[in-house]
Amino acid sequence: VYVDGVDLRGVDLDAWRQTATLVAQRAFLFSESIEDNILLGGNDSQKLERMLGLAALGQDIHSMPDGVNTVVGEAGMRLSGGQRQRVAIARGLARDKTVLLLDDVLSAVDHSTEAELLRGLRSQRSTTTVIVAHRISALMQADTILVLENGAQRDMGTHEELISRDGPYRSAWLLQQEELT
Q1: What counts of helices (H) and strands (E) characterise the chain?
Q2: Could you tell me which residues come within 8 angstroms of residue 128 by beta carbon, excluding any fewer than 6 positions away?
């Protein structure tokens, strides 16, 4: 795997940690407000509004009784799974790193929210975004898709290239297309 032409096997781990942010599928949220979970105690209201928009949280926030001051509860239990994931994504985006690693963070959102969120992520052109996903709709707009099977690279290409040839990606895409109809 190369980032900006650099083989990641040869990078200094401390330097790498300074450039990358990981957002896990089950990211931990603090029993604090949504604002504190995103800005980690900061108070930049313009940045907060931008992160809420990028993470497709705007409408959700307006429906909450205390807006961004809503306390999420222990590990975010007062939020839905999709809201928890999007708060974690907003926190990851707020860190202004050059690489954003999203580990299956779109699994609990509906398709329209997923599309809105992906549009926001694509607008972050200064950030390289790596998305791990099982849902093909989350990968369709990716510049490059790496298909793994049993821990090994099985295929690589764009969505169009991968669905044009037999393999696990095309099989998954066909199955998911059936499920949508």
Answers
A1: 8, 7
A2: 3, 4, 98, 99, 100
pTM for this entry? 0.85
The distance from CA 60 to its chain's CA centroid, rounded to whole angstroms, is: 17
pLDDT of res. 12: 86
Per residue in 17-60, pLDDT (tens digit) is: 888 899 998 888 999 999 999 999 888 999 999 999 999 998 89
With contact defined as beta carbons under 8 Å apart, do 96 and 104 qualify? no
Inter-axis angle of helices 111-122 and 45-54, nearest 10: 130
Q: How many CA atoms lie within 13 A of 136 on its CB side?
A: 18
Q: Does residue 178 sit in helix, strand or coil?
A: helix
- DSSP, collapsed to helix, strand or coil, labels residue 14 as helix
8 Å CB contact between 99 and 20: yes
Residue with tokens 């998305």: 131
Which residues 6+ apart lie within 8 Å of 85 measured at CB? 25, 27, 105, 106, 107, 108, 109
Confidence band for 121, pLDDT divided at 50, 70 and 90: confident
- Mean pLDDT across 73-77: 86
2 CB-near residues (< 8 Å, 6+ apart): 8
